[in-house]
Request: fold
Amino acid sequence: MNATQEQLKLKLQQALVGAFGDEYVGVDPVLEPAKNPKFGDFQANVALSLSKQLGMQPRAIATAIVEKLDVSEICELPEIAGPGFINLKIKTSYLETQLNAIIKDERLGVPKTQNPQKEIVDFSSPNIAKEMHVGHLRSTIIGDCIARILEFRGHEVLRLNHVGDWGTQFGMLIAYLREVSPEALTTANALNIGDLVNFYRQAKQRFDNDENFQETARQEVVKLQAGAEDTLHAWKLLCEQSRKEFKVIYDLLDIKLEERGESFYNPYLPKVVEDLETAGLVEENQGAKCVFLEGFTNREGDPLPLIVQKTDGGYNYATTDLASVRYRIQEDQAKRIIYVTDVGQTNHFNQFFQAAEKANWIPEEVELIHVTFGLVLGEDGKKFKTRSGDTVRLKDLLDEAISRARKDIESRLEKDEREETEEFIKNVAEVVGLSAVKYADLSHNRTKDYVFSYDQMLALKGNTAPYMLYAYVRTQGISREGNIDFDNLGENAKVLLTEPTEFTLAKHLLQLDEVISEVEQELLPHRLCDYLYNLSDKFNKFYENCPVLKSEEPTKTSRLILCHLTARTLKLGLDLLGIKVLERM
Reply:
C-alpha cells in the first residue's frame, strides 16, 4: 500500500505536467500536512514557487493544476485558498477502505522495500578489559533500533560489534599481569571484570611513567602479533572474560550482535598499507607512513596526517578501519555501511572515508554513513558522571532504572490496595525501567546532547515509555473487560468513522509506513518515537470521547477495530525501538 502522501504527490506531479508541459516532470509539488485541520489534511504550495518562472499569479497556477488534478478516490474536491494554496481533505470512505485493508495485514500496511540490499550496522563497540559505561549506551540503543528497522523493511542486515580487542593496551595489560597476577593469564575467570579494569588503570599509569615497562609492553604486543602461544592464550582469556560481561548487558537490553573485533582485521593490515602505497597516497613523515587528505589541518594550520603505519612498524585503528571498510565492501558485499559513534569521532571518520575513496575502494553504488550522536548529560548540564566524578557504569545505570521503576510500582499497588505476585512486579519493573532508558535516548534527536533524568524518563505522562506502555495496556484492558478476542471480531467487521477523534486517530494510524520509510532513509529514530507518542495521545483522546464497550453495533465493533489497530501499531513500533509491551501494569 503506497503512503497516502506519496500517492497525492504523484497525482499533483501528473497534474503539473498536464497543465504546463513535460518540462515540469518531477517538479516537487511542495505537499505538506496541513498545519490547521480546518483547511484539510494536506496543502500543496507549489503554485507560489512557480509564479516567477511561469509569469503567472499563484492563484491562476493553482487553478490550472486543480483542473488537471484527479484525486477523487482519495480526497474531497480540492480547494484553493489564500494566494494559491491547494488544500486537500481526505475522504471518509478512503480512510475506512485503507483501515479495513490493513486489519488482516500483519505488517499493518508497511510494505517491504522494493530494493532489498546487504546493509551493515557497526554499533556498540566496547573495549576489552574495560566495563561498558554510559558512553556505550547511545551507540548500542541507536544501532539496535536502526538495525531493527532495516530488517523490518526487508534488508539483509549484518549487526557488527567492532570491539577494541587488539593493540598496545593488551601488551600493556599482559605485561602488568605477568607481575601482579600471573594466574589471570593462564586460568579462566581468575579475575572478575572489576579487578581487570583496576589492573588496566594501574598498567596504563605504569606505562605512562616507566620507560622500561613501555618497552616490555611493546615486546608483548610483538609476541601477540607473532602468535606466541602463551601471549595468545592470555589474550584469549582476557577477551573471554570481557565478553561474558558484555553479554550480561546485551541480554538485559535484548541486543543481538555479531562480534568482529579489531583483531579480525589484523591479517589484512600489511596489504592495506601496500595498496595505499601503490595508489601513491602514502608519504613518510617522521618515520611514520601517512596519508594526507584535503581539508584536515592541526591547530597550527599544518596538514594533519592519517597515520597508517607507525615508526615502529605497528599499525593503529585508522589502518584497522580502512581494512574493515574494504573487507565489508569486497567480502561482505555490503551496499550501505552505517557506523554509529559519538560526534567527537567525526574527523576520524571523514578522514578514513576520504582515504578509502581516494584508494578507489568504494564503488559508486556503496554508501558509507557516519551516524553521529551527542553526549549524555547530567541534570546539571555537564557530562553525566557519578558523584565521585567517575564515568557511570552501564550496568549500574540500568539497575538503578529498574530499581526506581519497582519502587514506583510498589507504591502504586499499595495505594490501590492491589496485590500482585513477585514475578509480576519483577517483570513490570524490568520492562518499564529498561524501556524508559531506551525511549529517553531514542526520543531525542540523536545529533543533540540530552539530559539524563530518571524522574522524567519514568514519568507516566509526557513523551515517555511508560506513557506509551499505558496506552497499550489500556487497549488490552478493553479486551479483558469486554471479554473481547480482537483477532476474531467477525468476517464482516469494518471501520465506520463518525466522530472527530476517530478521524484523527484513523489518519494517524495510516501514517506508519511513511514514518518507517523516513527513518530507514534518514536514520533518525526520534521520528518514530514522535509518531508513537502522538498515536498514544490521539488514542487516549479517542478513548475519552468515544465509548467503546457501551456503544451499539456497528459502532462498537468499529471502535474495537480502532483499539486493536492502535495496539498492534504501538506493539510493532515499540518493538522496532527495542521495547517490549506489557499486557498489564
